Amino acid sequence: MHPISRDPMLRVESLKKVFRSGESDLVLFENLSFQVRKGEMLAIVGESGAGKSTLLHIVGALDSASEGDVYCARLQVNSLPDDQAAEFRNRQIGFVWQFHYLLPEFTALENVAMPLLMRGAAWQQVEGEASHWLGEVGLEQRAHHRSGELSGGEQQRVALARALITRPKLLLADEPTGDLDGRTAESVFELIARLHRDYQLTSLIATHNLAFARRCHRVLRLHQGRAEEVSPESLLA
Question: Domains in the chain, please, with CATH?
Fold first, then answer.
């Protein structure tokens, strides 16, 4: 693996998230504080409903915390106005979800290019970069297939290429292998790990798959509103 920087890419300080539930408040988590250094791959584990997805949404400026702060490379993410938050997401964050969210009317190549096209770039400017990233995920031969013509594993590979075409600082992956069978999930995780190394990413991966979590640098477990760091080796695969 490439060397990990001593500098934190991400700082989460005293994070709290409260949902209003009828007459009462539901505290999803509170006093969450941790740092992720540049180059680290952090797994986030915990039961369904523990707040893994919500935490990723807050880090990626898709949701706001009730209290606390998030800093990405010294930028205070949680204080950004909506337009700057959108700019931050488009330029600094790569998202991969459990469901691929590919646009069915477009080809694999067009789907990968979409984040750059959304910036207003011309197709001629981005076609080569989209082809490069399809090659990185091993799908150059499928460039002109629509998403419905691809297998589940291929769709998730396209989604990964789309997430990385902007050359983001942070990769946020929410159960990226959750919809895939065992062998396909293994190949997608291996791909994420390789691209993490090759492109010196900083990655947060929420996963139920403890075998995958064990292969990350660090593991953060969410449980009953708290976060504790556990050693990857302590997880039972």
Answer: 8-234 (3.40.50.300)
Cα–Cα distance, 155 to 153 (Å, whole number): 5
d(CA 214, CA 158): 25
pLDDT digits (tens, 9 = 90+) for 146-192: 988 998 889 989 999 999 999 998 999 998 887 778 888 888 888 89
DSSP string, the chain: -PPPPSSEEEEEEEEEEEEEETTEEEEEEEEEEEEEETT-EEEEE--TTSSHHHHHHHHTTSS--SEEEEEETTEEGGG--HHHHHHHHHHHEEEE-SS----TTSBHHHHHHHHHHHTT--HHHHHHHHHHHHHHTT-GGGTTSBGGGS-HHHHHHHHHHHHHTT--SEEEEESTTTTS-HHHHHHHHHHHHHHHHHTT-EEEEE-S-HHHHHTSSEEEEEETTEEEEE-GGGS--
Dump pLDDT digits (tens) for 50-78. Answer: 888 899 999 888 888 888 999 887 788 88
Q: Give the integer Cα–Cα distance in Å for 116 and 165.
A: 8
CA gap 127, 107 in Å, rounded: 12
Prediction pTM value? 0.88
Whether residue 133 contacts residue 161, with contact meaning beta carbons closer than 8 Å, is answered with yes
CB 72, CB 169: distance < 8 Å: yes
